[in-house]
Amino acid sequence: MSGTPSDAPGSEALFPAVCAQVRTDTHAFFLDVDGSLIDIAEHPDAVRIPEQLPQILATLAELSDGALALVSGRTIQSLDMLLKPLGFAAAGSHGAQMRLAPDGKILSAPPLDAVLTSTVKALVEGFDGVFAEDKGTAIAVHYRAAPDAAPRLERALLDILGARQDVRLMPGHCVFEVKPASLDKGTAVADFMGRAPFAGRIPLFIGDDITDEAGFSAVTARGGLALAVGTPRPGTHGVLADPRSVRAFLTHLAAAPRQRRR
């Protein structure tokens, strides 16, 4: 899919006024992917990457001296496949994976225990139109093709988890994810912000759903900016209409003259 007019510079009218405060020399960029940078598809493997997006991200990373990270529910391996041949600093599986630099090692939380993973997979087989995505450190249950199943599916998953404190059930856009309780997009942002080149910058987080709210909280606690996509979210400072508007905003930043930190 190629770029569209609203992906081009000159679309500033689409953006909240707060976007005018963002500078590549002072800000660190934390970007959700599905629903924020790209449109959500029926299946995670069916998404389409706008032709210009990888280069926009690469330019923005260069202008910010590397202070750009993808913060996604996808695994880092999946992100790399989507954006190849380019790679970026990233947090995958809602913070259960971390790569602190584009050429760095992927650090992962321990995998979910095999019994839990097998039990969730067996449950999903009883629901038409529902499938499980095993991420190793988490397991996502997608029900976009069977939205009416959501209440029954959620109850069944909560029954499986019972009183366990080490994992939690996280809802998203037509997905429930069983993941480590102690890790989320907020812990990922905090980890990045304690390290160069992110440390000392103003964090900006862009995300579209409830899984991003921990990231919003992490950046606002550090005096940063949180932008929701599509609909307002608690703790955010503005709303970008859709992924196309997000790409237009990033294109605008990437096209700005090179700025230097004062």
Describe the structure.
- The protein has seven helices and twelve strands.
- Helix 1 crosses helix 7.
- It has two domains: 5-108 and 183-255, Rossmann fold (3-Layer(aba) Sandwich), CATH 3.40.50.1000; 114-180, Hypothetical Protein Ta0175, Chain: A, domain 2, CATH 3.90.1070.10.
- A hairpin with a 4-residue loop joins strand 3 and strand 4.
- By secondary structure, it is α/β, with parallel strands linked by helices.
- The strands form two sheets. Strands 5-4-3-2-1-10-11-12 form an eight-stranded mixed beta sheet, with helices on both faces. A four-stranded antiparallel beta sheet has the order 6-7-9-8, with helices on one face.
- It is globular, with a radius of gyration of 18 Å.
Shape: globular
Would you give the CATH topology of the largest domain?
Rossmann fold
The total tally of domains equals: 2
Roughly what is the average pLDDT, rounded to an integer? 90
- CATH top level of the largest domain is Alpha Beta
Percent of residues in helices comes to 25-40%
**Number of DSSP-assigned strands:** 12
Oligomer: single chain
The helix-strand sequence is EHEHEEEHEEHEEHEHEEH
* Model regions low in confidence, pLDDT < 50 over at least 5 residues: 1-14
Quick description:
This protein has helices at 53-63, 76-83, 114-124, 150-161, 185-193, 213-220, 243-255, and strands at residues 27-31, 68-71, 89-92, 97-99, 107-108, 131-134, 139-142, 167-172, 175-180, 202-207, 225-229, 238-240. It contains seven helices and twelve strands.
